[in-house]
Each structure stands twice: as structure tokens, then as C-alpha cells.
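Blinded run. Sample ID left blank on purpose so nobody reads anything into the name before looking at the predicted structure. Input follows.
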Amino acid sequence: MPHLPSLPEGANLGQAAALNPALFAALGEVSEQAMRGPSPFSPGERELIAAYVSALNGCAYCVGGHRATAEAFGIDASTLEALVADLDSAPVADRLKPVFRLARKLTETPSRVVAGDTEAVIAAGWGEDGARDAILVAALFAMLNRVVDGFGIEHDPQGARDRARRFHDHGYRPGTPDGEEPGQ
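Blinded prediction complete.
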């Protein structure tokens, strides 16, 4: 149920975006750069980081869309649940585990992130660019989860599949097909 009286029952993010189009367009551009710009991480890996942060935050709307987008990029459907349940035994490459540890710490206890957390990502072979991008994707989705939950936008399985197709095929820039504002 939407949390603003101007939003209709069952509102989607596009309807919330219409309340401040310029700001949401900017969020779409930031999302495009973070999720599809140059990075040592593949788009699928960045989508998995986004889904992981969203799962840790309990944002069902974002989990649905970004898990499905990660799957569209070839990430196995069971990977997210395994990461949330036990990162150490999750079926991801060992070099990704420091990335998810950093994302978890930045999500759950951000004031406790230390240089050693980013150094572990760098040492795993991602370089400083990888540490930077892990921080930016995790921080972006912490914020976007709060935007979605703050507006009261509810998870819709078909909507998640539609967003995943759009994000996979067209990215996050404003004006992508299907009418809903990108960024979530």
C-alpha cells in the first residue's frame, strides 16, 4: 500500500517517479553508471550485489527485480539465497566473497567498515576499481531500497520479470521501454 496519499493503490515506481521526474531521471543516470558503466564486475555480478544488499535490507521489490536481472545475465537462481544463508559456503567464486563481505558490512554496520575490508577486495584481484564499485553499488541499493520502501511500493512478481527484461536489454537510463522509471 503506497505511503503517500497522491499515489494510487498498487502504485509502481514509475508513478512515484512522476512526483519528482528530474530527481528520478538523475537516479536513473546514476544507476546506469553504477550498474552498466565500466567496471571489473560483470553486469550480472553487479545485479547480484544489488539483490544481495536488497535481501539484507528486506526490500522484496528490489530483490525480485535484481535477482531476476542477475539470472538473465547467467547467475544461477539459487545463488542469492545461498549468499544470504551462508556467504562462506555460497556457490560463488572465492574472489567474490570479500566483495559480498564488504557489501554486507556496508549494509548492516557501515560505520565499522575499515581499510582492511576494501584491501581484501583489492587482494582478491578486483583492484581499487573493484573496491570502489562494490561500495558504490552497495550504497546505491541501500538508498534505493529505502526509496522503494518509503513510498510503499510493493513487490509484484510479473513486474519484477518485466523490470529484469528491461534492465537486461536496455539498462537504467530514463526513457527505457515500458514506461516505468528506471533505477529500481
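Unblinding after everyone has recorded impressions. Helices lie at 13-17, 21-36, 43-57, 60-72, 79-85, 97-108, 115-151, 157-170.
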